[in-house]
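Q: Here's a chain of 126 amino acids. Please give me its 3D structure as C-alpha cells.
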Amino acid sequence: MQLGNLEKSVLQYFWDTDEADAKRVHRELSDDTVRTLNTIQSTLDRLYKKKLLLRNKSGHAFIYRAAMAKDAFLARLVREVAADYTDNEDTLMAAFSSLSAEMTETQLQALESLIDQRRASDKSGK
C-alpha cells in the first residue's frame, strides 16, 4: 500500500487523537507547508476509501477516526509486502529471524513477552 507523506501524517494524527473533523485536522497539521482545507478533506476521503479511517456524519461534517491501531496497520503492511514476495510462510519467518539478529537484548525480551502474551490470549480464547 502506497501512502503519501500527508496521508502518513494524518494517520499518525489519528493514532494520537481519538477523532476529529477536517477543520480540526487542518488546523492541527498546519505548518510552513501550504495545505488547504480542501487538500485535507481529499486526503481524509482517500484514507477512508482505503479503509484506514472510519467516519460518521455529524451535522454537515464527517467525524473521522482511525480504523485500526498502529500495530494492526503495521501488521497489515508486513502481510502485504510479504505477499508480494512470497506465498511461503517459512520465507516470512526467515525474514523475521534475520530482523531479530539486529535487535538488542531488551528488544528481544520485549518481543518474547509479546509472543507469550499472544499465546496466553490464544489459549484463553480471546
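Q: Can you summarize the key feature?
A: Residues 105-123 form the longest helix (19 residues).
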